[in-house]
């Protein structure tokens, strides 16, 4: 009887003992024979730790051992702090700092935070993420290194990249056992509390050791210090891909593809504490040293991972550090596009018009008169003289950027507009290219032989018409119909006026689901002249997780393909860094002598490696002696110097290439002399103001016999003159030619009616 009683008590004791086993503070009756003492003979010391996270005088070591057969295993980080800190504080700080390390946590339980899974990007492809229960439709990506669960379902998670370190479990796969060693301890001991309760000591060690299939694994005697994670801090060597991102789940984002071929995801969010852009980020552009991101709405209400940034977000173009964000963009409505007009002013295009933006003070301004009531604002370009704006229902608007007034309208239904290398302006319709003279606004049509270009104002995106900075050529993607893109990249030779409608084929056209362009889809690298094409998979729904970026040479050869992490990125437009400033040629003189009229062609003396030279804005910053010299820049980008006396003047010229500005000083020695007849004609007649909205004044010392106005088609318009003034208020907006006959000569000059 006594023996039976003793045996019963031993069984009861064993049951009670087993019942007291705690994994991360959680009582577990299902785990038996757990070794709670684990001695390691590692010779690693704090002096060997290479990557320290945090600051402070206290130090602790953090070790993760996966026991998955992949090496190196048993990775070691260091953590520094002041005051009090827990094991959870250490894990989260390291997960946030080291983007290679990620975790699966169940936070807020009665026992604190449970660690269900830990991973590490072993192969460096930046594919950290998980699938839950094999659900490939909705991949999960870490924020601050954490993927959250709301239950102990850790066994259901698998890594997106099978080559990474990843172990997770609770009831089936095994579990993460927690081992600690404080300075007073001889060996590592199994922690009966979780990371939330664990109080760190200066000199302590924490080891997370995965018990595969619930089998004990001794703490490794070989631990590998993790090399420091070096975040990307400069964004000049590569290009950006701006993403609409997944509506109702995540706000807009931007990825960066560096010149080493690495895809760096959510670079703006990584730099700015998980802040994103607004909802459906359609457009991005770099002007000067700033990156402007435009979203349709201010925020996506369904996104709880990333803080929304607004319809307009401005960042440092080289570091991605946030500068400013705007939820509203005034009378423009919802966001569409942005254009830098000069170093002080930008235009914000929206669903209802264009508003001014003060670049210096970062303030949204007033509506540009004449830009509302024309549907959505689409693409905008800045030539050396004017701004051209595509509208949904109001044709193409021509704006004088000095006065911010609409001076002309080119009627028609257009989708996009660009400027070519030679300075010509081109807009595209469904089956026509329209050449627009950049100063007279005269148009010439070039029918596209067989294919079509179909844009989408219903769900606006930046157009697929693009241009080369090095060849005088345009490119776009053909269309099958309004709902389906084609499979060919089309090239148009601007010089020869010829079409190549099979220049290059979009990859992945075989099989049930083919690759299709998304968003703007096609852009040209201004420095390498390579074509960058982004595609997704047809079929809708989960197919949109599949995304590729293809690179073509300028001869149409596919040279590279990158596959993005599975996710609903919905890429909107590729943007290239503006790394170079404009350069003035050494053929440009530093000093000239003028005794009559001298003309210098500025188009040939200024260039920019990563921007169109023809679009560089030329202006006169200052003239030190206006009494002896007149200096103006005409519509042909020519500097016209006219002597008015004897002396020396310093003319400071300013060259603005996409917001990067350089100045050049020209010293002019001016002398007066008898002018030739042709030269007299150039300066004996003046008209002002130009542009004008009502009255045009004629200034001349000669007797005016008659004045006639012609439009650009050659049609004559009677122009009664009264005391040297002509009333032009009834003319439609545009450019005209004024012909004035005096008692000594005949003069012709252009003017603009606005």
How would you describe this protein?
It is a single chain. This protein is mainly β and 754 residues long. Among the domains are: 22-225, Ferric Hydroxamate Uptake Protein, Chain A, domain 1, CATH 2.170.130; 418-433 and 441-579, no CATH class; 583-670, Immunoglobulin-like; 686-753, Immunoglobulins (Immunoglobulin-like, Sandwich). The protein is 5% helix and 45% strand. Strands 3, 4, 5, 6, 13, 14, 15 and 16 form an 8-stranded mixed β-sheet that branches. A 4-stranded mixed β-sheet has the order 10-7-8-12. The protein has a 4-stranded antiparallel β-sheet with strand order 19-18-17-44. The longest helix is centred in the N-terminal third of the chain and has 18 residues, at 2-19. Mean pLDDT is 91; it is low at 1-19 and 674-683.
């Amino acid at each position: 009887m006594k023996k039976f009683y003793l045996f019963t008590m031993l069984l009861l004791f064993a049951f009670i003992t087993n019942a007291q086993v705690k994994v991360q503070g959680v009582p577990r009756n299902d785990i038996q024979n757990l070794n709670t003492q684990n001695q390691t003979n590692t010779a690693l010391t704090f002096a060997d730790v290479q990557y320290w996270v945090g600051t402070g005088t206290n130090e602790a070591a953090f070790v993760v051992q996966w026991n998955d057969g992949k090496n190196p295993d048993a990775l070691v980080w260091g953590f520094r702090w002041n005051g009090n800190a827990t094991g959870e504080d250490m894990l989260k700080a390291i997960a946030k700092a080291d983007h290679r390390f990620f975790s699966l946590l169940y936070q807020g339980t009665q026992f604190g935070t449970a660690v269900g899974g830990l991973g590490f990007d072993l192969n460096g492809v930046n594919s950290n993420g998980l699938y839950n229960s094999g659900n490939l439709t909705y991949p999960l990506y870490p924020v601050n290194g954490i993927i959250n669960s709301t239950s102990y379902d850790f066994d259901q998670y698998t890594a997106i990249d099978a080559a990474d370190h990843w172990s997770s479990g609770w009831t089936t796969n095994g579990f993460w056992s927690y081992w600690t060693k404080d300075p007073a301890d001889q060996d590592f001991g199994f922690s009966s509390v979780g990371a939330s309760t664990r109080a760190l000591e200066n000199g302590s060690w924490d080891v997370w050791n995965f018990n595969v299939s619930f089998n004990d694994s001794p703490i490794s005697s070989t631990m590998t210090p993790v090399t420091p994670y070096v975040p990307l801090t400069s964004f000049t060597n590569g290009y950006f891909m701006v993403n609409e991102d997944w509506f109702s789940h995540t706000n807009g984002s931007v990825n960066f593809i560096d010149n080493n071929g690495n895809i760096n995801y959510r670079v703006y969010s990584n730099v700015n504490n998980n802040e994103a852009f607004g909802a459906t980020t359609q457009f991005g552009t770099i002007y000067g040293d700033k990156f402007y991101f435009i979203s349709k709405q201010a925020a996506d209400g369904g996104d709880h991972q990333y803080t929304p940034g607004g319809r307009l977000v401005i960042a440092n173009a080289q570091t991605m550090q946030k500068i400013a964000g705007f939820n509203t963009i005034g009378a423009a409505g919802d966001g569409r596009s942005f254009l830098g007009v000069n170093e002080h002013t930008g235009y914000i295009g929206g669903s209802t018009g264009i508003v001014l933006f003060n670049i210096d003070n970062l303030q949204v301004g007033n509506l540009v008169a004449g830009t509302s009531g024309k549907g959505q604002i689409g693409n905008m370009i800045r030539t050396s003289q004017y701004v051209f704006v595509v509208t949904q229902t109001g044709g193409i608007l021509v704006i004088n950027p000095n006065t911010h007034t609409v001076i002309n309208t080119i009627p028609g239904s257009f989708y996009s507009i660009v400027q070519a290398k030679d300075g010509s302006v081109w807009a595209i319709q469904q089956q026509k290219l329209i050449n627009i003279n950049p100063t007279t606004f005269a148009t010439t049509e070039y029918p596209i032989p067989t294919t079509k270009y179909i844009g989408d104002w219903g769900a606006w995106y930046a157009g697929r018409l693009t241009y080369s900075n090095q060849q005088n050529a345009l490119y776009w993607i053909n269309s099958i119909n309004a709902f389906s893109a084609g499979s060919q990249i089309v090239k148009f030779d601007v010089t020869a006026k010829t079409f190549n409608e099979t220049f290059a084929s979009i990859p992945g056209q075989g099989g049930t689901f083919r690759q299709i362009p998304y968003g703007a889809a096609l852009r040209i690298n201004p420095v390498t002249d390579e074509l960058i094409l982004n595609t997704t998979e047809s079929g809708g729904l989960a197919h949109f997780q599949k995304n590729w970026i293809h690179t073509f040479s300028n001869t149409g050869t596919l040279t590279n393909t990158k596959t993005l992490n599975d996710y609903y990125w919905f890429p909107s437009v590729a943007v290239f860094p503006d790394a170079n400033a404009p350069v003035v040629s050494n053929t440009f003189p530093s000093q000239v002598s003028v005794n009559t009229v001298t003309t210098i062609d500025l188009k040939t003396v200024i260039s920019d490696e990563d921007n169109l030279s023809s679009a560089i804005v030329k202006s006169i910053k200052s003239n030190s002696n206006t009494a002896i010299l007149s200096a103006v820049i005409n519509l042909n980008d020519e500097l016209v110097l006219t002597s008015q006396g004897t002396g020396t003047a310093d003319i400071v010229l300013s060259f603005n290439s996409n917001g990067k500005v350089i100045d050049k000083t020209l010293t002019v020695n001016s002398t007066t002399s008898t002018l030739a007849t042709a030269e007299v004609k150039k300066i004996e007649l003046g008209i002002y103001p130009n542009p004008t909205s009502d009255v045009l004044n004629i200034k001349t010392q000669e007797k005016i016999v008659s004045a006639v106005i012609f439009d650009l088609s050659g049609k004559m318009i009677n122009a009664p003159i009264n005391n040297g003034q002509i009333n032009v208020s009834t003319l439609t907006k545009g450019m005209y030619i004024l012909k004035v006959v005096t008692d000594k000569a005949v003069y012709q000059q252009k003017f603009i009616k606005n």
